[in-house]
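Title: Prediction job returns without error message
Component: structure pipeline
Severity: low
Priority: P3
Assignee: unassigned

Description:
Job completed but the reporter wants confirmation the result is attached to the right record. Sequence as submitted:
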Amino acid sequence: MPASGPLQPRTARRCPPPNQRHVLAAAATGFRDFVGRHGGDADQVFCSVGVEEKELQNLTLALDLGAYVAMMELAAHQTGNENFGLWYGQQFQPEMLGLIGGIAIASPNLRSALTNLAALFPYHQQATDVRFSTDGELMRLHYRIIDGGIVERRQDAELTLGMFINVFRHCLGAQWRPEEIHCEHPKPDGWREHEQAFAAPVYFGQRTNAIIFRGGDLEHRMPNGNLLRLAELRDRLIQVGAGTGVVSLLDQVKGEIRSRLPDGPITIEVIAAALVIPRWTLQRRLADYGLSFSDLVDLVRRDLAACYIGRSSVTVAEIADILGFSELSALSRAFRRWFGVSPQKFRRKSAARETYR
């Protein structure tokens, strides 16, 4: 693990608001059975992340988003199936997803279903950015957790993309396939399973998670469209969801930095524009934490580097690219500054710890 802990505010003049980000328990439908089928112990997973299984029986109960994401990561580790989230999501039909799944099913056509997903998913899962947009001649359904404090989130990304894919297939049939799938995390060992599951090319280390598809079928009718039920479910979700969440400015900035690292050098002007606040205001607010913008970029890179270096499928050169370093030597220097060792030595130590766990 990192040699030093997270940076702490040195001269904070105000207390940041606590993060409020939850996900409705419907997102864990069938979790126990799925873990069991893959040789895992669901009770151990629940205990480790502090989730009471009885909470999952109420599909509209709010679970902490960080605990939910950690639950999926731990399940992957415990079952020994690094593609746990991928396959959990593939079997997750819209009707299993509670209110937001019902909204997609009740929409009159595919365009409406995707528009409703984009607009209303953040009530089902707070601190989340979902967008449905045009990407040149193609369409894009984009998904990203905006809370940069949640670092390990590969399993959640893959299972959510699977959930979204099944909305398309509910409308267009099981054989429907997208043009491309994008994932923000690095390429895993079992990446060929991703292309099998999505029936499309999958690109890793991208700015965000996304489904890229052609829009010719957007007017196709949903089999169970029902405008009255759609309105009822929409109102119920907004009531139960109690808003789209509150994320501290610090974690918002970390999230925006993370999404732009693969593009190379990041400026404070770009992040301020993304957050729709003046540059000087952002600079001042970061100073309240005792941080400069460059400090925060360094912190995000450090946390991600510690996460990615433990994955044997990802080369050190690939990590350098994903973290926006201009060359491998720059990452090596940063590793020695962060952890006191080279990336290769840090990786060997991580592998040794895993062996004896």
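Comment from assignee: result matches the submitted record. Confidence is low (pLDDT under 50) at residues 1-14.
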